[in-house]
Amino acid sequence: MNFELSEEHIMIRDAAREFAQELKAGVIDRDEEAKFPYEFVKQMGELGFMGIMTPEQYGGAGMDTLAYVLVLEELAKIDASAAVIVSAHNSLVLWGLNEYGTEEQKQKFLVPLAKGEKLGAFALSEPEAGSDASSQHTQAEDKGDHYLLNGTKNWITNGGNADIYLVIAQTNTELRHKGINVLIVEKGMPGFTIGPKENKLGIRSSDTHSLMFSDVRVPKENRIGDDGFGFKFAMKTLDGGRIGIAAQALGIAAGAYDLALAYSKERKTFGKPISNHQAIQFKLADMEVEIEAARLLTYKAAWTKDQGVPYGKEAAMAKLHASEVAMKHTVEAVQIHGGYGFVKEYHVERLMRDAKITQIYEGTSEIQRLVIAREILK
Ligand code: CAA
Ligand code: FAD
Prior knowledge:
Layout lengths: L6 H18 L2 H7 L4 H9 L18 H14 L1 H21 L2 H12 L5 E4 L15 E4 L3 E12 L6 E7 L9 E7 L5 E6 L10 E12 L10 H37 L1 E2 L2 E2 L4 H29 L5 H25 L11 H11 L6 H13 L1
Parallel strand pairs: 1-4
Antiparallel strand pairs: 2-3, 3-7, 4-5, 6-7, 8-9
Helix pairs in contact: 1-4, 4-5, 4-7, 5-6, 5-7, 7-8, 7-9, 7-10, 8-9, 9-10, 9-11
The structure holds acetoacetyl-coenzyme A and flavin-adenine dinucleotide (FAD).
Flavin-adenine dinucleotide binds next to strand 1, strand 3 and helix 11.
Pfam family, one: Acyl-CoA_dh_N
Cofactor: FAD
Protein name: Acyl-CoA dehydrogenase
C-alpha cells in the first residue's frame, strides 16, 4: 500500500491549486451576484480540466480518477461552484459518452466537450422524480427514426450554459426502469426551452435551471446504448459522479479548515491566540481527523474505480462521509471565526452555505445510506 501521490498527480494538483488562486479574487462577488464564471470555465478547458479523464484521442487529458479528484478538491477549497461545473461536466456527461457512446457520438459530442469548447449537463431529476429516479415522467416516444421528447427536468446543473444535455426519459412505461432511455439533446433543438435560473442558498455561481421539452425531435442516433439502457446508464454514471461530489465536499471542508486554522493563530482573546484555548484546539483536532478520513475514503473510491472493479459502494461511502464532514466542519469554521465568520469577507459563511448541497445532490445522504446498506446486505 502506498499513500504517496505520483509526480504526475502532484503536478496536476499543484496546477489546480495555482489556478484556484485566480478564482479567489472574484469569488465573493460571483456568489453574491450568482454570476457564472465564463472566463474561468474557458481557462479550465485550456488547462485540460474540462476533459480530465477523457482519453487523449477524444480531446481529453487522459488522466485517471485520482487526478480528477485532486483537481476538484483544490477548486472547491476556493470556489465550490467552479468545482461542481467541472464535476457535472466530466463525470455526468463525458464519462458516459466515452464509456457507452458510438464512435460517431464521440467524434460529434465528446471531442468538443473534452476540449472545453462546449459544456455538458445531465438531466435525470424531475419535479416528481428526485431520489425516486426511476419514476420518470418525461416521455421519449419512439417514432421510428427519432424520439419525440416531452416533459420537464428540474434542478439541472449547467442548465443554462450547457450546449449538450444527456436527458433521461421513459419510452416504454410498462417496462418501468427497463423502458428508460438516455438521449443526447442539443441546445437550440426546436421545442427545447430553458427555465429561469434558480436563486440558491449555495453554489450560487453554478447555474441551475429546469428544462422543458415540447415535441422535441431527437434523432435515434442520439440514443446512448441499447433501447432501455437509460436507467442503468444513469446509475452507473452516478457511481462515478458521487466520487466527484465527495471531492467537492472534501475541498469545501479542507478550505474552511485552512481558513479556521490560520485565523485561530492570529485572533487573540484573553491575551493569547484563540488556538491556545483547548476548546478551539479540540475543534481543530476533530477537523484534521475527520477531513483526513474523508480524503482517504474519496481517494480510495477513485483508486477503486481506476482498478476496473465495482466501486458504487466506495463512491457512496466517500460521498456520504465527505458531505457530512463538510457540513459539520464548515459550521465549526464559522464558530472559530466568531462574528467575523458571519460576514462574507472571511469566506467561511459561503463555504458553509456551499456545503449543504453536497448532502443533497447526486443522491441525498439518506440515499447514499440506502445504496451502502443494499450492497452490504446483498
Ligand atoms: N449500477 C448499475 N446498475 C444499477 C445500479 C448501479 N449503481 N444501481 C441500480 N442498478 C440497476 C439494478 O441492478 C436494477 O436493474 P435490474 O432490474 O436489471 O436488476 C435497476 O437498476 C433498478 O435498481 P433498483 O431496484 O435498486 O432501483 P430503485 O428504484 O430502488 O432506485 C436508487 C435505486 C439507488 C434509490 C436510485 O433511484 C438513486 O440513485 N436515486 C438517487 C438519484 C440521484 O442520485 N440523482 C442525482 C441526479 S444528478 C445530480 O444531482 C447532479 C448534480 O447535482 C451535479
Ligand atoms: P426527494 O427525493 O423528494 O427527497 C426529500 C427527502 O426525503 C430527502 O431528505 C430524501 O433523502 C428523503 N427520502 C426520499 N426517499 C427516501 C427513502 N427511500 N428513504 C429515506 N429517505 C428518503 N439533478 C439532475 O438530474 N441533474 C443535475 O445536474 C442536478 N443538479 C442539481 C443542483 C442543485 C443545486 C440541486 C438542489 C439539485 C440538483 N439535482 C440535479 C437534483 C438532485 O439530485 C435532487 O434534488 C436529489 O436527488 C433529491 O431529490 P428531491 O429534491 O426530489 O428530494
